[in-house]
UniProtKB/TrEMBL annotation:
Residues 136-272 form the SIS domain. Residues 11-87 form the HTH rpiR-type domain. It comes from Rhizobium puerariae. The keyword Glycosyltransferase does not apply. This is MurR/RpiR family transcriptional regulator. Keywords: DNA-binding, Transcription, Transcription regulation. Pfam families: HTH_6, SIS. InterPro entries: Homeodomain-like_sf, HTH_RpiR, RpiR-like, RpiR-like_SIS, SIS_dom, SIS_dom_sf, WH-like_DNA-bd_sf. The keyword Transmembrane helix does not apply. PROSITE patterns: HTH_RPIR (PS51071), SIS (PS51464).
Length: 272
């Protein structure tokens, strides 16, 4: 059943997507997950390409668009194209020329990843809520011990934050899956948990967050989409969207947020 009307802004689109995603059947939930993680592709992709990315038939993707309130994919695409009007970077033209001349070469690949990283960094100020960032810094600075978990693709980010906090003499503990050693019992009242996970989300990270949330321990989450499972646990959420190239997604914006968060926490504790 179609909603009363289509979202008028990208922000309203995000709210609608979050509202309906939990009740969608499997195929349409695949559409929601893919769209939430790849909103940058909507303006430049066909419905067939979006459906292929989500792993569904085009007809299912069209049905998903209608559930969000649009007449079809074209109307949803127009919302995103209008929001980007005048905002396409000139640098992308140079990247395209490099692709055409040196496709597959190391220099072309470098340029591709530079462009993906640059676009991700430019979007960071739009995806991170400034009030949530302030609350996250205060929560972590006030904690007796900051516990950090981030596995697989998130592990470099988690380990970097642990390193940075240690250098600033902020009590911190990095949780990992090395040796399958469970350090969950080390999380005590007065501590805080910083959890980092991106689609496809780490089951171990979500399990730890769920257990910690049940104990009333504050949680700061660094994640990607508005349908991330970390949002179910009343965590202070910092959203990061990374543009990918091929099957690879860099950590440019995520690491920028990581060092910003770490330095802000260290500075706040130094002033206590």
């Amino acid at each position: 059943m179609r909603e009363a009307g289509p979202p008028a802004t990208v922000s309203a689109f995000d709210e609608r997507l979050l509202e309906v995603s939990a009740t969608l059947p499997k195929r349409l939930r695949q559409c929601a997950d893919y769209v939430a993680a790849n909103k940058d592709r909507i303006a430049v992709s066909t419905v067939a390409e979006m459906a292929e990315g989500a792993g569904v038939q085009p007809s299912a993707f069209m049905r998903f668009c209608q559930i969000l309130g649009f007449s079809g994919f074209s109307e949803m695409q127009k919302l995103f194209r209008d929001s980007y009007a005048g905002g396409w970077p000139d640098y992308s033209t140079r990247i395209q020329h490099l692709r055409e001349r040196e496709e597959g070469s190391p220099s072309a690949l470098l340029a591709e990843f530079v462009e993906a990283g640059r676009t991700s960094l430019e979007g960071l100020l739009k995806t991170v809520d400034q009030q949530a960032l302030g609350e996250a810094v205060k929560t972590l600075a006030d904690a007796r011990m900051v516990h950090i978990i981030g596995l697989r693709r998130s592990f470099p980010v988690a380990s970097y934050i642990a390193y940075a906090l240690e250098k600033m003499e902020v009590p911190a503990m990095l949780h990992s899956a090395v040796g399958q050693i469970d350090n969950n019992h080390a999380i005590r009242a007065g501590d805080a948990l910083l959890a980092i996970t991106f689609s496809p989300y780490s089951a171990e990270t979500i399990e730890l967050v769920e257990g910690v949330a049940a104990r009333g321990i504050p949680i700061v989450a660094v994640t990607d989409t508005i349908v991330s499972p970390l949002r179910r646990f009343n965590a202070i959420t910092l959203s990061v969207s990374e543009v990918d190239f091929g099957a690879f997604r860099s950590l440019s914006a995520t690491l920028c947020l990581a060092i910003s968060l770490s330095v802000a926490v260290g500075t706040a504790r130094a002033g206590m």
